[in-house]
Amino acid sequence: MSDETGAATGTDAEAAGTERRVRVVLVDDHRMFRTGVQAEIGRTEVTGVEVVGEAADVDQAVTVITATRPEVVLLDVHLPGGGGVEVLRRCASLMSAPENPVRFLALSVSDAAEDVIGVIRGGARGYVTKTITGTDLVDSIFRVQEGDAVFSPRLAGFVLDAFASTDAPPVDEDLDRLTQREREVLRLIARGYAYKEIAKQLYISVKTVESHVSAVLRKLQLSNRHELTRWATARRLV
């Protein structure tokens, strides 16, 4: 994880780890990523963060969050079963609880405007990308616990623009044909990433990347990655 947020470094959170605590549930469909985050932030005696549960899909997430009632949920946007927005919808009563509300911080590889806006409209308190450092993530968790809104710097503009406008975003029928994972692959292909780099970014195999690319080309009726890049650029998805 590299330095992404413009927030405080998180050193204070580590130094005061024995004095303040936050209970966290980690929701991500990649076990290896969950393990890495747990190792990075879950040293409770140092960071003050206690990971009290994990989940890999929407149903698991709702069950674990309801059972553990954490202060903060680290939520991936793209999950089996309906995505992060569905988790937020099904946990709406927990977010609006008059006492000890559960707060959500999106943690995703995606930096797409529609993903950011979707989960914020769903009730998340912030959105950071997976390039964030461990210390900044700890700091962001505590800030969300305290009621602040936290964003990686370039993502905050998406939210400001979206809520400053009264116009609903236009529907793109072509884009709607793609699954959330296919959209992720599409953006990375359009940015010039090789299949191996995409596989590493998304924690999937190269063969799976190839399958997603084939599906995207078929659904959009495109012939190659050059046409795909032009298509994505025209829609400002890159």
Automatic annotation (TrEMBL):
InterPro entries hit by this protein: CheY-like_superfamily, NreC/VraR/RcsB-like_REC, Sig_transdc_resp-reg_C-effctor, Sig_transdc_resp-reg_receiver, Tscrpt_reg_LuxR_C, WalR-like
Domain HTH luxR-type: 171-236
Domain of life: Bacteria
Domain Response regulatory: 23-145
CDD domains in the record: LuxR_C_like, REC_NarL-like
Nucleotide-binding in keyword set: no
Keywords, sorted A to Z: DNA-binding, Phosphoprotein, Transcription, Transcription regulation
Cleavable signal peptide: none
A Pfam family per the record: Response_reg
Nucleus recorded as keyword: no
Residue numbers of 4-aspartylphosphate PTMs: D76
PANTHER family: NITRATE_NITRITE RESPONSE REGULATOR PROTEIN NARP, TWO-COMPONENT RESPONSE REGULATOR
Name of the molecule in the record: Response regulator transcription factor
Taxonomy of the source species: Bacteria, Bacillati, Actinomycetota, Actinomycetes, Kitasatosporales
